[in-house]
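Incident log, support desk, overnight shift.

02:14 A customer reports that sequence design results differ from what the structure should imply. Their input is reproduced verbatim below. On-call engineer (initials T.W.) acknowledged and began investigating.
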């Protein structure tokens, strides 16, 4: 198999590859430091990486991949029980960490290797195949202990090359982001993506609108973020002309990991003249669809299938939905070289995740527009509401609610109803907690924009919505709110 990162050996050695704050490594220096990591762990099957937002994490993961091993990125915010499960399940012998990083007791049995970003060793020529594991990334574990999705080298290469085609991503691009590095978005797209292209990544360490403005004004061409980050940008834009100017000069603004509310799309476009594009992926599939750089950046959609990815919508009985009407809701199923190979040590879960003819069941519900654009309406488990004989996606109701001037945040769920089957419940964080918009007002607001059967029947008010590290709303926690 060809190298995942040809620029480490064939590219200009003096070009900056990665930068974290004031610290940076050229391609030549990264090759040396990653080569040293590879030499240190040679022969290992799986290697844990304490994935702090630091230069050493990028060196560690690159080195593991150069060695032909599989990296297991660990979330530094995980609790002891979750870390203990991941270590027991993935069974690494070694954990790579930045010097001085404090590791929890759950990692106490592992050999610790501090990553030296100044070390120098040759890039090894590991004998690896396309199907060899590259990463074991653990899912969020919303329905039980986290499962380790085994991502082969083939999946990383396929996704990053497909995105390069869709986004016209080249070695000339400089990416800025402040995403965590223990998950697909920040690590695979945000670090390994630039390295595969031979470009540069500037990591903010911690997201801030000031950091975004500074880096985009200083030559960065692309910004990756999650909806929470873009919401903060939208909130800051009216009082920050420098931020608006910097965003307006970017080549590509990309949002992912959850749906970006239409209201924030429109506020950013109005202030900057640039539209954010969205893409759709999962831990198990990496990237499936995206709005293309030369396509229409339509708010509320995640574009079209990426090169090499096959996508279909199916009914509950498994029959394929062929209608491109923007209304018929079905579950997304995908096939392609971007898919994982298995859940580690979970043959039962792996078998259940695929249909008999090899399609991966995403659990995401969507409609397709007449031109093939995909619009996700929610998760099958938490966002598909069956009310009065209709199948309703929570996502479009949430977008409608967010257009109300009195709503700061919104989430929609269903709860049992003797008459309707399920009734629609809106969870609202009001702009003014002392004078929140009333339930009837919000119901009418939604009914006028969508349809009467999509209006919330119950409204509950919160100070904040529960979210995970990637900014996704944890709807299972709403029942306890």
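02:41 Re-run completed on a clean worker. Output:
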């Amino acid at each position: 198999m060809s190298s995942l990162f040809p620029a480490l050996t064939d590219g200009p050695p003096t070009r900056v590859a990665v930068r974290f704050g004031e610290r940076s490594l050229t391609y030549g220096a990264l090759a040396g430091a990653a080569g040293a990591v590879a030499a240190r762990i040679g022969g290992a099957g799986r290697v844990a990486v304490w994935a702090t937002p630091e230069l050493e994490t990028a060196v560690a993961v690159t080195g593991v991949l150069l060695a032909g091993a599989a990296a297991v990125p660990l979330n530094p915010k995980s609790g002891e029980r979750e870390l203990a499960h991941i270590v027991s399940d993935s069974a690494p012998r070694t954990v790579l960490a930045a010097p001085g990083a404090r590791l929890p007791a759950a990692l106490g049995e592992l050999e610790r290797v501090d990553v030296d970003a100044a070390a120098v060793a040759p890039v090894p020529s590991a004998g690896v195949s396309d199907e060899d594991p590259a990463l074991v990334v653990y899912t969020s574990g919303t329905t039980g202990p986290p499962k380790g999705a085994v991502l082969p080298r083939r999946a990383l290469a396929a996704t990053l090359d497909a995105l390069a085609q869709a986004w016209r991503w080249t070695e000339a691009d400089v990416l800025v982001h402040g995403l965590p590095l223990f998950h697909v978005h920040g690590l695979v797209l945000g670090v390994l993506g630039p390295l595969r292209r031979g470009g540069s990544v500037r990591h903010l360490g911690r997201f801030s609108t000031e950091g975004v403005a500074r880096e985009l004004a200083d030559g960065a061409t692309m910004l990756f973020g999650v909806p929470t980050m873009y919401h903060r940008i939208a909130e800051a834009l009216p009082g920050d002309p420098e931020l608006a100017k910097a965003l307006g000069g970017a080549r590509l603004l990309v949002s992912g990991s959850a749906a970006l509310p239409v209201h924030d799309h429109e506020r950013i476009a109005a202030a900057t003249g640039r539209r954010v594009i969205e893409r759709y992926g999962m831990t198990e599939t990496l990237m499936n669809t995206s709005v293309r750089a030369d396509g229409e950046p339509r708010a509320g959609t995640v574009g079209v299938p990426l090169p090499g990815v096959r996508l279909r919508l199916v009914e509950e009985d498994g029959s394929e939905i062929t209608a491109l009407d923007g209304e018929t809701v079905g579950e997304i199923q995908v096939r392609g070289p971007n898919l994982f190979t298995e859940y580690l040590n979970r043959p039962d879960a792996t078998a259940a995740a695929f249909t008999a003819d090899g399609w991966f069941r995403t659990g995401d519900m969507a409609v397709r527009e007449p031109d093939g654009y995909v619009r996700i309406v929610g998760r099958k488990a938490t966002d598909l509401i069956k009310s009065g004989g209709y199948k309703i996606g929570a996502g479009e109701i949430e977008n409608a609610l967010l257009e109300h001037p009195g709503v700061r945040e919104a989430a929609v769920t269903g709860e049992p109803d003797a008459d309707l089957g399920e009734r629609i419940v809106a969870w609202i964080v009001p702009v003014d907690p002392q004078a929140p918009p009333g339930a009837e007002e919000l119901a009418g607001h939604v009914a006028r924009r969508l349809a009467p059967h999509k209006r919330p029947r119950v409204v509950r008010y919160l100070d904040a919505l529960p979210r995970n590290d990637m900014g996704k709303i944890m709807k299972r926690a709403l029942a306890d709110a």
